[in-house]
Amino acid sequence: MGVGEKIKQKRKEKGYTLKRLSEIVDISVSFLSDIENGKSKPSLDRLTDIARGLDANVSYFLGEEAKEEKLIYEEKYLDIFTDDEIKKLLEEEDFLQILDEFKGFDKWTKQEKEELKMFLQIKNKYKD
Question: Is 0.85 surpassed by the pTM of this model?
Answer without folding.
Answer: no
